[in-house]
Amino acid sequence: MRYQFKFRPYQRRFLRSLTTNHGKWDIREGIILRLTDESGKLGWGEIAPISWFGSETLEQALDFCRQLPEEITDEIIFSIPDELPACQFGFESAWEWGSGRDEGDEGDNFITPNSSLLLYSALLAAGEAALNQWETLWQQGYRTFKWKIGVDAIADELKIFESLIHTLPAFTKLRLDANGGLSYEEANLWLRTCDNLKANGKIPVEIEFIEQPLPVEQFQEMLELSTSYETVIAIDESVATLGQLAACHQQGWRGIFVIKPGIVGSPSRLRTFCHQHQIDTVFSSVFETAIARLAALQLAAELSRNNRAIGFGIDHFFEQEETWLQSLWKDF
Protein backbone atom coordinates (compact mmCIF):
# COMPACT_ATOMS: atom_id res chain seq x y z
CA MET A 1 0.00 0.00 0.00
CA ARG A 2 1.14 3.54 -0.78
CA TYR A 3 0.30 6.65 1.23
CA GLN A 4 0.55 10.37 0.64
CA PHE A 5 2.53 11.68 3.61
CA LYS A 6 2.39 15.11 5.23
CA PHE A 7 3.58 16.36 8.61
CA ARG A 8 3.34 19.49 10.70
CA PRO A 9 5.31 20.47 13.84
CA TYR A 10 3.37 21.82 16.83
CA GLN A 11 3.98 23.54 20.16
CA ARG A 12 1.79 23.54 23.28
CA ARG A 13 2.66 25.60 26.33
CA PHE A 14 2.11 24.13 29.78
CA LEU A 15 -0.15 26.24 32.02
CA ARG A 16 2.63 26.02 34.59
CA SER A 17 6.14 24.63 34.24
CA LEU A 18 6.26 20.89 34.77
CA THR A 19 9.00 20.29 37.34
CA THR A 20 10.76 16.94 37.63
CA ASN A 21 14.22 15.76 38.61
CA HIS A 22 15.16 16.40 34.98
CA GLY A 23 14.38 20.11 35.34
CA LYS A 24 11.57 22.43 34.22
CA TRP A 25 9.54 21.81 31.08
CA ASP A 26 7.59 24.76 29.63
CA ILE A 27 6.62 23.83 26.07
CA ARG A 28 5.55 20.46 24.63
CA GLU A 29 6.75 20.14 21.04
CA GLY A 30 5.96 17.38 18.61
CA ILE A 31 4.89 16.49 15.08
CA ILE A 32 1.45 15.62 13.68
CA LEU A 33 1.48 13.12 10.79
CA ARG A 34 -1.13 12.48 8.13
CA LEU A 35 -1.25 9.49 5.80
CA THR A 36 -3.75 9.27 2.94
CA ASP A 37 -4.12 5.87 1.31
CA GLU A 38 -5.02 5.15 -2.30
CA SER A 39 -8.75 5.16 -1.53
CA GLY A 40 -8.62 8.52 0.27
CA LYS A 41 -8.79 7.18 3.82
CA LEU A 42 -6.84 9.18 6.37
CA GLY A 43 -4.58 8.07 9.17
CA TRP A 44 -3.36 10.48 11.84
CA GLY A 45 -0.27 9.96 13.95
CA GLU A 46 1.90 11.90 16.34
CA ILE A 47 5.59 11.94 17.15
CA ALA A 48 6.03 13.23 20.70
CA PRO A 49 9.65 12.63 21.70
CA ILE A 50 11.20 13.19 25.12
CA SER A 51 14.93 13.03 24.47
CA TRP A 52 15.93 13.31 28.13
CA PHE A 53 13.76 10.28 28.82
CA GLY A 54 15.38 8.08 26.23
CA SER A 55 13.77 8.82 22.86
CA GLU A 56 15.19 10.62 19.86
CA THR A 57 15.26 14.43 19.88
CA LEU A 58 12.61 16.52 18.14
CA GLU A 59 15.21 17.63 15.59
CA GLN A 60 16.11 14.02 14.78
CA ALA A 61 12.42 13.26 14.28
CA LEU A 62 11.98 16.30 12.05
CA ASP A 63 15.07 15.35 10.03
CA PHE A 64 13.60 11.89 9.50
CA CYS A 65 10.26 13.31 8.32
CA ARG A 66 11.94 15.84 6.02
CA GLN A 67 13.98 13.19 4.21
CA LEU A 68 10.95 11.03 3.42
CA PRO A 69 9.29 11.29 0.00
CA GLU A 70 5.75 12.61 -0.32
CA GLU A 71 4.61 9.07 -1.04
CA ILE A 72 5.60 6.32 1.40
CA THR A 73 4.91 2.58 1.71
CA ASP A 74 4.23 -0.01 4.40
CA GLU A 75 7.85 -1.11 4.05
CA ILE A 76 9.10 2.36 5.00
CA ILE A 77 6.75 2.55 7.99
CA PHE A 78 7.82 -0.81 9.39
CA SER A 79 11.54 -0.33 8.81
CA ILE A 80 12.02 2.82 10.90
CA PRO A 81 15.15 2.20 13.00
CA ASP A 82 14.98 1.54 16.75
CA GLU A 83 16.95 4.75 17.35
CA LEU A 84 13.72 6.59 16.44
CA PRO A 85 11.14 5.01 18.81
CA ALA A 86 8.77 7.99 18.88
CA CYS A 87 8.79 7.97 15.07
CA GLN A 88 8.04 4.23 15.08
CA PHE A 89 5.04 4.86 17.31
CA GLY A 90 3.78 7.87 15.33
CA PHE A 91 3.96 6.30 11.89
CA GLU A 92 2.64 2.90 12.92
CA SER A 93 -0.23 4.56 14.82
CA ALA A 94 -1.14 6.57 11.72
CA TRP A 95 -1.01 3.36 9.68
CA GLU A 96 -3.36 1.63 12.15
CA TRP A 97 -5.68 4.64 12.33
CA GLY A 98 -6.16 4.67 8.57
CA SER A 99 -8.72 1.88 8.63
CA GLY A 100 -12.20 3.35 8.26
CA ARG A 101 -11.23 7.03 7.97
CA ASP A 102 -12.47 8.98 4.98
CA GLU A 103 -11.13 12.01 3.20
CA GLY A 104 -12.38 15.14 4.91
CA ASP A 105 -12.61 13.58 8.39
CA GLU A 106 -11.01 16.24 10.53
CA GLY A 107 -10.08 13.78 13.24
CA ASP A 108 -12.14 15.51 15.90
CA ASN A 109 -13.88 12.39 17.22
CA PHE A 110 -11.14 10.95 19.41
CA ILE A 111 -13.02 7.92 20.70
CA THR A 112 -11.06 4.97 22.01
CA PRO A 113 -12.63 1.50 22.15
CA ASN A 114 -12.79 0.25 25.74
CA SER A 115 -11.17 3.38 27.16
CA SER A 116 -14.22 3.96 29.35
CA LEU A 117 -13.23 0.84 31.27
CA LEU A 118 -9.85 2.28 32.25
CA LEU A 119 -9.07 3.94 35.57
CA TYR A 120 -7.01 7.12 35.43
CA SER A 121 -4.26 8.46 37.67
CA ALA A 122 -3.86 12.25 37.98
CA LEU A 123 -0.45 13.88 38.10
CA LEU A 124 0.05 16.32 40.96
CA ALA A 125 2.48 19.23 40.82
CA ALA A 126 5.76 18.81 42.66
CA GLY A 127 6.25 20.32 46.12
CA GLU A 128 3.62 21.98 48.29
CA ALA A 129 1.41 22.83 45.29
CA ALA A 130 0.09 19.26 45.45
CA LEU A 131 -1.59 20.00 48.79
CA ASN A 132 -3.86 22.57 47.14
CA GLN A 133 -4.38 20.66 43.90
CA TRP A 134 -5.60 17.18 44.75
CA GLU A 135 -9.08 18.22 45.93
CA THR A 136 -10.16 19.63 42.57
CA LEU A 137 -8.93 16.48 40.85
CA TRP A 138 -10.70 14.31 43.42
CA GLN A 139 -13.95 16.12 42.63
CA GLN A 140 -13.34 15.31 38.97
CA GLY A 141 -13.31 11.62 39.86
CA TYR A 142 -9.64 10.73 40.26
CA ARG A 143 -8.81 8.24 43.02
CA THR A 144 -5.16 7.60 42.17
CA PHE A 145 -2.55 10.36 42.25
CA LYS A 146 1.11 10.58 41.30
CA TRP A 147 3.39 13.03 43.08
CA LYS A 148 6.88 13.96 41.93
CA ILE A 149 9.70 13.47 44.46
CA GLY A 150 13.45 13.93 44.18
CA VAL A 151 12.87 17.55 43.19
CA ASP A 152 13.51 19.37 46.50
CA ALA A 153 15.48 18.53 49.63
CA ILE A 154 14.36 15.15 50.94
CA ALA A 155 13.60 16.50 54.44
CA ASP A 156 11.22 19.07 52.93
CA GLU A 157 9.57 16.50 50.68
CA LEU A 158 9.05 14.07 53.57
CA LYS A 159 7.25 16.82 55.50
CA ILE A 160 4.98 17.58 52.54
CA PHE A 161 4.43 13.84 52.07
CA GLU A 162 3.36 13.55 55.71
CA SER A 163 0.81 16.32 55.18
CA LEU A 164 -0.39 14.88 51.89
CA ILE A 165 -1.08 11.36 53.14
CA HIS A 166 -3.01 12.69 56.13
CA THR A 167 -5.05 15.02 53.89
CA LEU A 168 -6.02 12.63 51.11
CA PRO A 169 -9.32 10.78 51.60
CA ALA A 170 -9.45 7.14 52.65
CA PHE A 171 -8.79 4.53 49.97
CA THR A 172 -6.85 6.95 47.76
CA LYS A 173 -3.88 5.42 45.96
CA LEU A 174 -0.67 7.47 45.86
CA ARG A 175 2.31 6.92 43.58
CA LEU A 176 5.66 8.58 44.28
CA ASP A 177 7.72 9.30 41.16
CA ALA A 178 11.41 10.12 41.60
CA ASN A 179 12.36 10.16 37.89
CA GLY A 180 15.62 8.47 38.87
CA GLY A 181 16.50 11.39 41.14
CA LEU A 182 17.23 9.70 44.49
CA SER A 183 20.52 8.49 45.89
CA TYR A 184 20.69 4.93 47.18
CA GLU A 185 20.43 6.23 50.76
CA GLU A 186 17.46 8.45 49.91
CA ALA A 187 15.68 5.59 48.14
CA ASN A 188 16.11 3.43 51.23
CA LEU A 189 14.74 6.24 53.41
CA TRP A 190 11.63 6.67 51.23
CA LEU A 191 11.00 2.93 51.10
CA ARG A 192 11.54 2.53 54.84
CA THR A 193 9.21 5.45 55.55
CA CYS A 194 6.47 3.94 53.38
CA ASP A 195 6.96 0.49 54.91
CA ASN A 196 6.70 1.92 58.43
CA LEU A 197 3.51 3.81 57.61
CA LYS A 198 1.97 0.66 56.19
CA ALA A 199 3.09 -1.44 59.17
CA ASN A 200 1.70 1.05 61.69
CA GLY A 201 -1.64 1.14 59.90
CA LYS A 202 -1.96 4.84 60.67
CA ILE A 203 -2.95 6.04 57.23
CA PRO A 204 -5.96 5.07 55.11
CA VAL A 205 -4.04 5.95 51.93
CA GLU A 206 -2.38 3.19 49.89
CA ILE A 207 1.17 3.91 48.69
CA GLU A 208 0.85 1.96 45.45
CA PHE A 209 4.51 2.17 44.44
CA ILE A 210 7.64 4.29 44.21
CA GLU A 211 8.50 4.90 40.58
CA GLN A 212 12.09 4.84 39.28
CA PRO A 213 13.83 5.75 42.56
CA LEU A 214 17.36 5.39 41.12
CA PRO A 215 18.99 6.36 37.81
CA VAL A 216 18.81 3.97 34.87
CA GLU A 217 22.42 2.84 35.33
CA GLN A 218 21.62 1.60 38.86
CA PHE A 219 19.23 -1.12 37.72
CA GLN A 220 20.83 -3.84 39.86
CA GLU A 221 20.42 -1.69 42.97
CA MET A 222 16.72 -1.18 42.15
CA LEU A 223 16.38 -4.93 41.64
CA GLU A 224 17.90 -5.43 45.10
CA LEU A 225 15.66 -2.81 46.70
CA SER A 226 12.58 -4.39 45.12
CA THR A 227 13.17 -7.53 47.21
CA SER A 228 14.16 -5.68 50.41
CA TYR A 229 10.96 -3.75 51.17
CA GLU A 230 7.23 -4.30 51.19
CA THR A 231 6.66 -1.08 49.24
CA VAL A 232 6.55 -1.87 45.54
CA ILE A 233 8.98 -0.32 43.05
CA ALA A 234 8.03 0.44 39.44
CA ILE A 235 10.57 1.18 36.73
CA ASP A 236 9.98 3.89 34.14
CA GLU A 237 13.06 5.57 32.63
CA SER A 238 14.73 2.15 32.71
CA VAL A 239 12.14 0.86 30.21
CA ALA A 240 11.60 3.90 28.00
CA THR A 241 12.07 1.88 24.81
CA LEU A 242 11.28 -1.66 23.70
CA GLY A 243 14.95 -2.59 23.77
CA GLN A 244 15.25 -1.47 27.39
CA LEU A 245 11.98 -3.22 28.26
CA ALA A 246 13.28 -6.53 26.93
CA ALA A 247 16.68 -6.06 28.61
CA CYS A 248 15.20 -5.35 32.07
CA HIS A 249 12.86 -8.34 31.79
CA GLN A 250 15.78 -10.54 30.74
CA GLN A 251 17.78 -9.31 33.75
CA GLY A 252 15.04 -10.45 36.10
CA TRP A 253 12.65 -7.54 36.67
CA ARG A 254 9.23 -8.94 37.54
CA GLY A 255 7.78 -5.87 39.22
CA ILE A 256 5.80 -3.08 37.56
CA PHE A 257 6.80 -1.73 34.16
CA VAL A 258 5.65 1.85 33.44
CA ILE A 259 5.26 2.06 29.69
CA LYS A 260 5.01 5.31 27.78
CA PRO A 261 3.55 4.21 24.42
CA GLY A 262 4.44 7.51 22.75
CA ILE A 263 8.17 6.82 23.03
CA VAL A 264 8.44 3.06 23.58
CA GLY A 265 8.54 2.22 19.87
CA SER A 266 6.48 -0.03 17.58
CA PRO A 267 2.94 -0.73 18.89
CA SER A 268 2.82 -4.11 17.15
CA ARG A 269 6.09 -5.25 18.72
CA LEU A 270 4.94 -3.95 22.12
CA ARG A 271 1.78 -6.05 21.84
CA THR A 272 3.83 -9.13 21.01
CA PHE A 273 6.15 -8.59 23.99
CA CYS A 274 3.35 -7.98 26.48
CA HIS A 275 1.33 -10.98 25.31
CA GLN A 276 4.39 -13.20 25.40
CA HIS A 277 5.60 -12.23 28.87
CA GLN A 278 2.38 -11.15 30.64
CA ILE A 279 4.15 -8.30 32.43
CA ASP A 280 2.58 -6.07 35.10
CA THR A 281 2.10 -2.72 33.33
CA VAL A 282 1.11 0.86 34.01
CA PHE A 283 0.59 2.85 30.82
CA SER A 284 1.56 6.51 31.03
CA SER A 285 1.32 9.73 29.05
CA VAL A 286 4.13 11.69 27.43
CA PHE A 287 1.96 14.84 27.40
CA GLU A 288 0.86 14.06 23.88
CA THR A 289 -2.13 15.53 22.06
CA ALA A 290 -5.43 13.70 21.54
CA ILE A 291 -4.02 12.04 18.41
CA ALA A 292 -1.26 10.05 20.12
CA ARG A 293 -3.47 9.57 23.16
CA LEU A 294 -6.00 7.68 21.02
CA ALA A 295 -3.38 5.10 20.04
CA ALA A 296 -1.85 4.98 23.53
CA LEU A 297 -5.20 4.38 25.23
CA GLN A 298 -6.02 1.65 22.74
CA LEU A 299 -2.81 -0.12 23.75
CA ALA A 300 -3.57 0.43 27.44
CA ALA A 301 -7.06 -1.02 27.01
CA GLU A 302 -5.64 -4.07 25.25
CA LEU A 303 -2.59 -4.74 27.41
CA SER A 304 -3.30 -3.61 31.00
CA ARG A 305 -3.58 -6.68 33.23
CA ASN A 306 -3.94 -5.80 36.93
CA ASN A 307 -6.53 -3.03 36.78
CA ARG A 308 -3.92 -0.39 37.61
CA ALA A 309 -4.85 3.22 36.90
CA ILE A 310 -3.21 4.57 33.77
CA GLY A 311 -1.15 7.76 33.92
CA PHE A 312 -3.13 9.92 31.53
CA GLY A 313 -4.66 12.38 34.00
CA ILE A 314 -2.72 15.33 32.64
CA ASP A 315 -5.33 17.57 30.95
CA HIS A 316 -5.06 20.14 33.75
CA PHE A 317 -1.50 20.93 32.62
CA PHE A 318 -2.70 22.47 29.34
CA GLU A 319 -5.30 24.98 28.22
CA GLN A 320 -8.19 23.10 26.67
CA GLU A 321 -8.31 24.33 23.08
CA GLU A 322 -10.91 22.34 21.20
CA THR A 323 -9.93 23.41 17.69
CA TRP A 324 -6.15 23.86 17.74
CA LEU A 325 -5.45 20.50 16.10
CA GLN A 326 -7.89 21.20 13.29
CA SER A 327 -6.36 24.64 12.69
CA LEU A 328 -2.88 23.08 12.65
CA TRP A 329 -3.68 20.85 9.67
CA LYS A 330 -6.55 22.81 8.04
CA ASP A 331 -4.37 23.83 5.07
CA PHE A 332 -2.76 20.41 4.50
Structural class of the secondary structure composition? alpha/beta
> Helix segment count?
12
Number of strands: 12
Please give the alpha-carbon distance between the first and last residues. 21 Å
Low-confidence stretches: 100-113
Mean pLDDT: 91
Binned, the helix content reads 25-40%
Order of helices and strands: EEEHEHHEHEHEHEHEHEHHEHEH
- Overall geometric form: globular
The profile of the biggest β sheet is:
8 strands, parallel
Radius of gyration, in Å, reads 20 Å
What does this structure look like?
The chain has 332 residues and is α/β, with parallel strands linked by helices. The chain is 35% helix and 24% strand. It contains twelve helices and twelve strands. The strands form two sheets. It has an eight-stranded parallel sheet with strand order 11-10-9-8-7-6-5-12. Strands 3-2-1-4 form a four-stranded antiparallel sheet, sandwiched between helices. A hairpin with a 4-residue loop joins strand 2 and strand 3 (42-47). The radius of gyration is 20 Å and the shape is globular. The model is unreliable at 100-113 (pLDDT under 50).
